């Protein structure tokens, strides 16, 4: 069985391949199948992941999985949330994980409430219009 990974991140593919291989599932990055990146206009992890999975299924006719993740900081009302990957650019840094950490720590310095959580959402669809997507948060 083949499943499309709605991502072109080689690290993500490398992480997931060993999990799917024992199940007899061939996981294929969407770029290898010519699938364009899906827009992520939503403010929830579920909506963004679902959009990416549906986009991959639409372009390939195969089942697809996608994820969306981010840091939710209590003192900031759950932000940066879905915008975590680009948080640092709002503070004058180039986009990178290291710069995101730097920007968050700088902005959190005066904050006494430092509670936060990393939210990761994975969505699986059997087809583009699957009425029962599998969603794990």
Characterization of this structure:
- The chain has three helices and five strands.
- It has helices at 10-20, 45-60, 97-108, and strands at residues 2-5, 26-29, 64-73, 116-125, 134-136.
- A five-stranded mixed sheet has the order 2-1-3-4-5.
- The longest helix has 16 residues, at 45-60.
- It starts with a strand and ends with a strand.
Describe the structure using short key phrases.
5 strands, 137 residues, alpha/beta, 3 helices, 28% helix
Annotate the secondary structure layout.
Elements: E1 2-5, H1 10-20, E2 26-29, H2 45-60, E3 64-73, H3 97-108, E4 116-125, E5 134-136
Parallel strand pairs: 1-2, 1-3
Antiparallel strand pairs: 3-4, 4-5
Structural class: alpha/beta
What is the overall shape? elongated
What low-confidence regions span 5 or more consecutive residues with pLDDT below 50?
Answer: none
SS field, number of helical segments = 3
The string of secondary-structure elements, in order, is EHEHEHEE
In which order are the strands of the major sheet placed? 2-1-3-4-5
Q: State the helicity in percent bands.
A: 25-40%
In short:
The chain is an alpha/beta fold. It contains three helices and five strands.
